[in-house]
Specification:
binds nickel (II) ion; 318 residues; transferase; alpha/beta; 11 helices; seven-stranded mixed beta sheet; four-stranded antiparallel beta sheet
Length: 318
């Protein structure tokens, strides 16, 4: 299966007055065409910063190194694009929206306040020469036609969330990154949104879902990547991951689910201003030993597996 996005050694740091925040560290990740990849991890581990770095949306105090090669997503076939060094203009004209769509984490700030949902959607459909109409797209995300005639400030959080999803889908991007697309939705609408994203993959699209909701990931993901304190610690096929997570952090995260043992992960993640050289989970890890002073890595060729010196699963299941 072809790789739509090949991320290598991606690092994002924020320079603050007297310190540096290490939001993404040496991240390697292949996103394959036609698959739904779920990126999971606790609040503040770097998920949204990763998404923003791929969309050319980082603020000025960000320093980015590494590479993220986007391939095979252009109907006009202008070749691969290196996202990390792409100029802001190129992002605005040919990449953002058209080749990669983003459902942003904060819908309220992403919506233009002076236009109704219908105006925003119709304009996006027109710019991208789509034949679909706004009502059809609204129905896809579970919005009624009347909801489109409201201004963003008249929408509930969940409605605004669905409108931003419809806006991201309007250009029909080959790669969609959805950052917490189900926040504020009731369970039936959560499932509706997830199934919509799943269908995109089943018809050749590629979707990356960033979520806190492991139950959501279990419902739709082909693959799961677990982020901890700016790094990826596990990346495996979803079936194998949910049957038996391999990184002690991933196991603890799954164990915290109400449907499992409902035990919160003990302790706290490290400050991103003072990350250790070795495994960042070691201080919280029941199995930590002297090996953990050395940083464990995923397989750099496949970007899969587990970054741990004492994984719970050493052989792939199934
Ligand atoms: N502009 C910025 N300047 C400094 N630090 C930042 C900036 N933007 C994000 N950060 C920091 O980067 C880290 C990662 O943030 P990010 O938003 O990616 O987390 P997240 O995993 O998406 O969390 P959540 O699940 O809560 O959305 C956090 O410590 C955050 O405070
Ligand atoms: Ni986030």
């Amino acid at each position: 299966m072809s790789t739509v996005l090949r991320i290598r050694d991606l690092t994002v740091r924020f320079r603050l007055r007297d310190t540096i925040v290490q939001a993404v560290s040496g991240l390697d990740l292949d996103v394959r065409r036609g698959e739904l990849l779920a990126i999971v991890g606790e609040s503040g581990c770097g998920k949204s910063v990763l998404a923003h770095s791929l969309m050319g949306l980082l603020p000025k105090n960000a320093q980015v190194t590494g590479s993220a090669l986007l391939r095979d997503t252009d109907p006009a076939d202008t070749g691969p694009v290196e996202l990390i060094s792409a100029a802001p203009r190129r992002f605005a004209r040919g990449i953002r929206g058209r080749r990669i769509g983003l459902v942003p984490q904060s819908p309220a700030t992403a919506l233009t306040p002076v236009r109704t949902g219908r105006k925003l959607l119709e304009e996006t459909l027109r710019v991208h020469r789509r034949t679909t109409d706004a009502d059809t797209l609204a129905a896809d995300v579970g919005l009624a036609p009347a909801d489109l005639d409201r201004y963003p400030f008249e929408l509930s959080g969940g409605m605004a969330q669905r409108l931003t999803t419809a806006l991201a889908l309007a250009p029909d991007p080959p790669l969609l990154i959805a950052d917490e697309p189900t926040t504020g939705l009731d369970r039936p609408l959560v499932d509706h949104t997830l199934d919509l994203l799943r269908r995109r993959c089943d018809t050749g699209g590629t979707v990356v879902v960033i979520t806190h909701d492991l139950t959501a990931a279990e419902r739709v993901a082909d693959r799961v990547a677990v982020m901890y304190a700016s790094r990826l610690v596990e990346h495996r096929p979803a079936d194998a991951f949910f049957a038996s997570p391999s990184h002690p952090y991933a196991a603890a995260l799954l164990d915290a689910l109400p449907t499992r043992s409902f035990n919160p992960v003990p302790g706290h993640p490290p400050m991103l201003t003072a990350l250790p050289d070795g495994c960042a989970f070691a201080p919280r890890c029941p199995a930590a030993n002297s090996d953990c002073a050395r940083r464990p890595d995923l397989d750099p060729d496949t970007t899969e597996g587990v970054a741990c010196h004492h994984p719970l699963v050493t052989e792939e299941v199934g």
